[in-house]
Amino acid sequence: PLRTITILLxxxxxxxxxxxxxxxxxxxxxxxxxxxxxxNDVKTVATSEPKIADAVVVSPREVMVNAKGLGKTTVIVWxxxxxxxKYNV
Length: 89
What we know:
Largest sheet: 4 strands, mixed
Strand content: 35-45%
Oligomer: single chain
Helix content: 10-25%
Structural class: alpha+beta
Number of strands: 7
Radius of gyration: 16 Å
Strand order of the largest sheet: 1-7-6-3
Distance between the termini: 41 Å
Order of helices and strands: HEEEEEEE
């Protein structure tokens, strides 16, 4: 029983990892930003630590990532019909 649960949890975590594209590294200067452009319309954008950087959808296929503070954060962008894209900022 315990072994079954462990195997199931490992299988589920592997499935979750497989559902996102490999992370991309993004280095920003404080007070600066970078425009990300996509082939498909952006559905959702999330930032793990909004005090470090924010992400704003500026058009259906563009997201502006702005550095607001020192540190590290993750930005994830979900496009229509594509795997989520992860950015380590």
